[in-house]
Amino acid sequence: MSLPGYNGGSLEKFIDDVVRPPSGFLADLHGAVDIIVKTLHQLPGNSVQKIVQTGSLGKGTAVQQSCDADLVLFLNGYDSMEAFLARRQRILADIEKWLQQPADQITRMTIKRRTQYNLTYNCAVRYRGKTVQLEMDILPAIDVFRSKSGGERPIRQVYEEMKSKPENVRSNYSVSFCEKQKAIFRPENAKVKDLIRLLKYWKKTNSKSVK
């Protein structure tokens, strides 16, 4: 495996110097994302249950000069995936309209891409006296693990529900698993995160496609 810039010696030092982002850089990104999260919690016409940060920034697997911040926007008020899907395009339009409004510390939110599932933005946010640039995906979703009584449904029950749905509905459940996927990347799994960072660095510097 070719690692441009690595000439032997301590691999840990190479990861620390070249691959792993500086802690101050990550702190600035997290601060900028928090500002956008607070703005989205006030989304008019929608009841926001919670916002989960995923992507490489949320999972702690970002590499230097390459970081994405994905926000999964969980909404209240839907008792089925079908009911949510019937209104998802309206929700995406609400998000786009809301983020066009002037907001403290957010200097620019420019749409890069729209799909039927999400919005991708190029963002510029003022944080600690500097402007932080980042790319962000915003994905509306519902919490399929939350029961009507407010408790958590067993994962097996959710799987059984998914199996009963047609493919065009079932495929939309995946984003709702983001918190369980994120839990794999616990802080104590630092070596695993560095391995993922190293693979990302190798992919980027060798122009490889990794699935």
From TrEMBL:
It comes from the Eukaryota. This is Polymerase nucleotidyl transferase domain-containing protein. GO terms for molecular function: 2'-5'-oligoadenylate synthetase activity; double-stranded RNA binding. Residues 154-208 form the 2'-5'-oligoadenylate synthetase domain. Residues 36-115 form the Polymerase nucleotidyl transferase domain. It comes from Patella caerulea. One of its GO terms (cellular component) is nucleoplasm. Belongs to the 2-5A synthase family. It holds the Pfam family OAS1_C.
